[in-house]
From TrEMBL:
One Pfam family named in its UniProt record: DUF4238
Name recorded for this polypeptide: Uncharacterized protein
Stretches with biased composition (Basic residues): 435-454
Region entry Disordered, spans: 435-467
Amino acid sequence: MQNWVVFCIPSSAAMSQPRPQYQHYIPRFALRRWVVASAPAKVPWPFLDEFLNIYDLKANALLLGTETVARSFGMLDMYKDASRPDDFNHVEHALAKLEHQASEIFAKIEKTSPTGSVMLTRPEVNALRKFMFVMGIRNSYQYAAWKDGTLDPATMWVLRQFATKHGLPSTGHAFIFSLKHLIDTDPWEVAQNEKIFWATRQDYKFQMLNFAISIYRAPPRSEFILTENGFGIWSGISQLNAITKFRVPLVNSFTPFMVTHLYPLSPKVAIILRYNVLTMHELSTANPKDRVTWYFQSFPFEPAKVTYDPPPTMSQSDLPTPNSLEEQHKTMEMWLGGVPVASRSKDKLTFKCFTLSTSQSQMVNSLLLENCLERVIFTDILSLYKSVRLCYDKDKILMHKVDYTKLKRRLVDAFRASQLTVGREDGHKITMVGRHLHRQAAARRRKKKKRKSKSSNSATTSTAPAT
């Protein structure tokens, strides 16, 4: 008897269509820094399943170690380019290269001692800045706004003109097109590359030239959280202050002027980009009462120390006095031989790392909580509870757009359910939680007793007979 083997050969059309791919807007290497557990994958796979602690605002669900890195903070075919049948995922591949560079820089920063410094080459600083900027525009909200056309009418009109100019069928394709050219373009040439959307070019140039990098560490027993839109969250001042104090032109009187951008790198390290004019303003304003107030004002800061290679070609005393930021950048290029500062590949920059106080680290978390719309990632239950209860709830600057009452209840339930936790450090945390909850309960009892005392005194006073 003869055996026959039947082969099913798919059509060329079916072969040309790749399977849907889950693509992250927060890359795996960044999410892994918040991993709380890992286990062998359920399917043959060269990696372990890695799990996160997540609070889902919409579902009011506290997911402790159940959500995987592989299927969190992404969507299907986010970077798929249907116009390139030869390589549908060429944008994903370009992002992978940038992410690889960023992961090595992240590791370099994390190895630095809490009070030490980290030295980065100019190309490393360029790659870090570009990665952080890209993270701010690749989140799910930005992508949906481009794809669905929900940006403001003026921006949408310019965006449609951009798509038409480059023969792109939709504004969603314009997102992919602009992002790919942003990644591939040298930092000093981004502003001139018309294949990058105009607003993106201007924002990138402004951030690269006018914001300084500052590196911060969380203190012991504290951590930074992360949210779905946490990379690039900004804080600002009023336009009136920006005009009168910083001499910037009016853009929109109802829109705050951005002075910082926040980027949590891990539970222990965060980068804040700080507007350079803040430093100039503080140095030139002797009276603290005349200074502009802003959210991270209490955070220490020190500009990077730069070793120029080759050294400057002329003395600073021979340079003309700049009258604007634009002139200042041109003067800087003149001082360094007439080339863009970002193109000097042999320069080395040393950044000091500052360890924040517990209250300062909680301020970072409060800003993230204020702007979160979907999910919060964390590793330590107690640290998150304290950030919400002791900082966010009492913050007098934020608008308190989000009510975290349900999250606090979930965290308290998680505290009580983890009484069987083994291990010295975890046991210490549970003891701290118990003490914290006990103090809260005692404070409530004291308040209740005080209210009763007041009410009884008022009752006695009202019923006392006249003498």
